[in-house]
Amino acid sequence: MEEIALENHIVKQFDEELDEIRALLMAMGGMVAQQLQDSIQSIVKVDSGLADSVIERDKRVDEMELEIDEACLTIIARRQPAATDLRLVMMVSKAVNDLERIGDEAKKIAKQAILLSEQEKPWGFTEVRHLGKGALSILNNALDAFARFDTEAALRTFNQDQQIDLDYQTALRESVTYMMEDPTSISRVINILWVIRSLERVGDHAKNLCEQIVFVVRGTDIRHQAVFDDTH
Amino acid sequence: MEEIALENHIVKQFDEELDEIRALLMAMGGMVAQQLQDSIQSIVKVDSGLADSVIERDKRVDEMELEIDEACLTIIARRQPAATDLRLVMMVSKAVNDLERIGDEAKKIAKQAILLSEQEKPWGFTEVRHLGKGALSILNNALDAFARFDTEAALRTFNQDQQIDLDYQTALRESVTYMMEDPTSISRVINILWVIRSLERVGDHAKNLCEQIVFVVRGTDIRHQAVFDDTH
Question: Residue A230: pLDDT above 50?
């Protein structure tokens, strides 16, 4: 009886530790989503002050990645988890990497916002607003799916990336047309090009998060597949 | 005595498994370096056939990522490694991710090579050749440092990324100038822009590999620092 009680105690402690890294990951996800939103706003509202604060706060995102990685290493070393629990820890370690990269993209967008705020004749804000909305939506949906470990939501969100890719292609074509019509705009429009490219990459990272959810819950690996049909 | 013999046996088996995933990672690294080299060649030599083969072979790179990840999970679950060994396994798992992303950049470059092969008046090949040389060099140096677990070489290679970033900025400025002088070239030069951006990202991923080597060997985390002075 004592042994069982002890085992339960250890299992309970382990669950608490797992919950803790999940909570840390969700906190990091929330922070990154805010960073992305602010970076898009800093472009659309030509707000270089907001852009500065995004760049400043990126350090905190980087710190969180290291903290969570450290927590994952500790949990593996101390608890030696197997099967699903191990997959969860490994997945958290991959997921923080994607979140950190989304944070990086937000920082890159903020840097372009500062460059753009110094220029006249802004162009491309409609495109950034539209693509930005899509990128924020896929990220928030991925984080929601993660919070509930909902594979159906994850698969639906995974497929959402296709629309972002289409919107990205459209914005790219419009940018080229605009530059050809007004070559003096080229340097400025290239700033916008990097922004829409960053937003497209946010979609890719959100897609990775969705893959990781399915990987943990189902134990199958859906990376390197384009689209899923089994969402209904 | 028997117990020690058994333990030695297990330790030896574990070492063999670790060596195996290291060997797999090096094999993947060699494949990815070849992919990068071929993708650069496909641009510079306007060889869409070579570009096709890069795109085709990327599937094999993706498969290798999954295989090595699976091997890492198995080794953690079965051997429950601690301290340095655990860091090694975690690091391999991160490193394959960077290698896979370098493979992705090679595929993206190959796709641009196909688009460029359909156009007249090629421009930007000098820039691609120059930046490509830098990207290949940092990748090969990172893989060499990895093969020998050489932290000094890793730190030296880490700093090499600065030069790539400078070359990237130069190529970017030249591209803008070229487009302004000849607006009919815009669409074509944007193809080149994506290529030089991909090459710059290869430098970032190679830098990540170097960080991971130091992380494993020294147990310190050097991510999110710009440059290291302790190379000598």
Answer: no
Residues B148, B78: contact at Cβ < 8 Å?
no
Q: For residue A65, which residues of chain B lie inside 8 Å, CB to CB?
A: 223-224
- Mean pLDDT of the residues in chain B: 87
Structural contact between residues A164 and A205, judged by C-beta atoms closer than 8 angstroms:
no
Please report, for the domain that includes residue A76, its CATH number: 1.20.58.220
- Report the chain B residue with the minimal C-alpha distance to residue A64: B224
Cα separation values, A199 from A130, A141, A223, B226, Å:
10, 15, 20, 24
pLDDT value at position B218? 75
Task: Answer whether residue A2 is part of any domain.
Answer: no
ipTM above 0.85, yes or no: no
| Total of domains in chain B | 1
Q: Give chain B positions within 8 Å (CB) of A186.
A: 176, 179-180, 183, 186
Residue A231's φ and ψ, nearest 5 degrees, are -90, -10
**CA gap B5, B12 in Å, rounded:** 10
Residue B7 maps to a domain = no
Mean pLDDT for the stretch of residues A205-212: 93
Is the pLDDT at A61 greater than 60, yes or no? yes
Give the DSSP H/E element, type plus range, for residue B115.
helix B83-117
Query: For B145-203, how does the pLDDT look when each residue is reduced to its tens digit (9 = 90+)?
Result: 988 889 999 999 999 999 999 999 999 999 999 999 999 899 889 999 999 999 999 99
Please indicate, yes or no, if residue A223 is contained in any of the structural domains: no
Q: Is residue B228 in a domain?
A: no
Asked if the model's pLDDT at residue B222 lies above 70, the reply is: no
CA-based radius of gyration for chain A: 20
- Which chain A residues are closer than 8 Å to B66 by Cβ? 221, 223-224
